[in-house]
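JOB MANIFEST
job_type = single_chain_structure
chain_count = 1
residues = 627
[input]
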Amino acid sequence: MSVRSLRTSAAFLAFLVTATLTALSVPVPAGAVPTEEGRGAAGKEVVLATGFPGKALPPGFRAVEGNWEVRDGRLHGSSAHSGVLSRITFGAHLKNFRMEVTARFESVTDPSRWAALGLDVPADGSVPWSLATVRSGTTAANGLEFARRTAGNTWDVTDTGPAPSAVGTGRDVRLAVEVHGSRARWSVDGREALRTSRVARSADGVEALVVNGATVSFDDLRITALPDRGHLRPPGAPLTVIAHRGASSAAPENTLVADEVGRRGGAEYIENDVQPSKDGVPYVLHDSTVDRTTDGSGAVRELTSAQLDALDAGSWFGPAFAGNRVPTLAAQLGDLRERGGDMLLEIKGRHSRDEVATIVRIIREQRMTDRVFVQSFEPDALRYTRELAPELPLGLLRGTLDADPVAVARELGLTSYNPSDAALGARPGAVAELRDAGVAVMVWTVDSPDRWAALEEAGVDAVITNRPAELVGWNAASRQHRPTAPAVAVTSPAPGARLDRAQVPVAAVQSSGAASTRLTLDGRPVEAGEPLDLTALGAGEHTLRATVTGPGGTATAESAFTLRASRTGLAHLILTSGAADHHVATLTTMLGHGHYRQLARWAEHGRGLPAPRAALIAKEARALAGG
């Protein structure tokens, strides 16, 4: 073959390699489940991942306001002044997800300007939105926020806090928000900084990026769908905070104002009691009579809804709360739906099946089935609930422990077993027995930091308390005094990626709280940050495993990718084989004409090829020929 022909073959193969690598850099279409990106471990699913290649916005991205453009491998969003809320929407409606992106403030009009991850935004960018915002002046008291732009175009800022480090301008930071229903956690550069239980959710909102009074560039955007959290407390996680009858130490119990105080204090659940009026309307009230907590008297079940509606349920607690009413279950659920928070709902006292059916109907009418946890002292109430609404989690309240709590939990189909603190104190080993059986333990009613510490040590999952804000603060202080549990994820090659031998992926991990990292490929050590030589691997699935160790323990993560035969990969094997030019020319000519079997036979005879490479080329060619 002439030198000119050899150059032509090489140029053709170079074109194949370039074209294939370019195609592989195209991001997953917004809102689509990728076939190339794949699925992560434990039910996690990457639904969007892009590094913003090329010059056009990725498919499915919708610039609503402001200037948005892709250049130099980043998405740039600009807002000329604080009155411009530049935003771009993308993705799909997800109940539970993690959204992360690398962001850099390129310029700001002043340090109070911000960027935001849109957690629930209509696809057309109209209000209302739920956002997680970050200011360039990040260490300010409101450097991070969870906020809502209301339907009336006003702001409802639910939670604020400082970031663990300054962002400023010109610096890349990794931002991440993990959302589970109405709860969310804000992290900056791998460090959690702010939590909320008040993300307002819609039925169809998607994800977004928002810029205000700044120019911000974004890279490596990734959205991962997450499974439901469950109710077992992960290692190192804080106690789940449940506000007993709302924040009943600070506001009149079982009222909407007590719910709001508990919500503002950071409680993840509002615990309340429900029982029916004389005319069958479920009301939120603890006692069997209204005497203690209202200006009326008489048994709840002997008073009509009109009589209950007329009662003052706040004055007994303090003059500032005069005029607060006994809420219906429907009103309380509607308030939680609109303003955030989940409900731990106690069915108080004996209820007939029809009375439980009314409660279930109202929960469904209020579209709150995924945010209500039902508990009761009455096993029959739980049996009725399980029969009528098997999707609702159940908890059994106990003043003394059963002889075999695990057996009772299995018989009733419980998600949690909820004993008093005194009952559990007599037999703390029951916690491990229940959790080993997959049953959470929620303890009532505990207001002492000493007991919080003991319950946390015992492995309890949640605490019902009259002092939710204090427990939230205690949780935060406890985290400051113990090592953070390490975390790690394999970021490259991406989980489920399908690669060929022409590619040279870099082994990469993202970790936090780690002092050392060990990375292996199919059990053999590799260095993070080093290119992987795919020419030395067999076809099929391969696994990268990362193990990190730090003061807070050890964590591991795995990512599997598939090495597949392709024309580009075979070309790479030939061109890097070290064979003489005339042998390379012959093989590339066969490849160019698609004569895979002829190419395989040539390689099997070892003509001018090193033996290991000849065998690999032959195997790759036969795979492309269909066996």
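[summary]
The first helix runs from residue 3 to 24.
The chain has a mean pLDDT of 88.
exit_status = 0
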